[in-house]
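Listing S7. Sequence submitted for prediction.
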Amino acid sequence: MFSGAGLCDLGLHWAGFRHQWFCEIDPFCRSVLARHWPGIPIYEDVTTLNGAELPPVDVLCGGFPCQDVSHGGKHAGIRKGTRSGLWLDYARLIGEMRPRYVIVENVRGLLARGIEIVLRDLASLGYDAEWEVLSAAALGAPHRRERVFIVAFPHGEGPDPEHRLLSPLQRIVGKVDQPCVVLDWRGIRIVGQSREAVRHAYPGPVLHRVDDGRAGGLDEFRGAAPGRAHKLGRADLTTARQWMPRLKALGNAITPQQAYAIAACILEAEGMDIPPMP
């Protein structure tokens, strides 16, 4: 659920997971999902889903909206009527579907604004939970992008109390760290929290480097800010319209390597082989 453009789903796919369905409200992101996973059902609205009518799954995964729990967001918290309040529908579907595992992803701000609600709801449904903060930088990316990952399982059905399900994470992260990925970013590795650290590491236009070169024309966009779009030429405006939803989708996503590492922990707990990350 909350599939976005499928970057979390890509990491699960790398780990050998087979998707049964997606749920995503944004039309651009749905078009990306449909292109890369043709034939897989894509539902549009999590609030209308009925767990009894959905194809059953072993793992239910989703990163509910972060706007109300993020440090830079609205600070409204998890409550009905807020974007982050869509967690309540996620919890409802967990109760209706009873998956063997649940993966919940969100920004680090969740630790201060709502993780107790998530854990309380999971416990009331009969699920135990573990959580870790995993950064994209730990897997070779040149940016921090720290995310909280919660993995839940029915009470009494997880690993024994002496061995946490997520305990292999550090070893798995070490295996999939790919410093060569940083070469595409001209050797940058950002380790500081401040904007000044970013500027010191790379004084050029950082956002320009987001484009992977696969969408024609995006690297050439040098248009004005959205508020000045009326001053752009027709060709530039078309390029801006292509570029902006793509950048928004990337900004809302995680790196697939993070999802792969979490999936690998689940596979190890199940005694299953872990496919190497491509």
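Caption to Listing S7: primary sequence and predicted structure tokens for the chain studied. DSSP finds eight helices and six strands in the chain. The longest strand covers residues 127-134.
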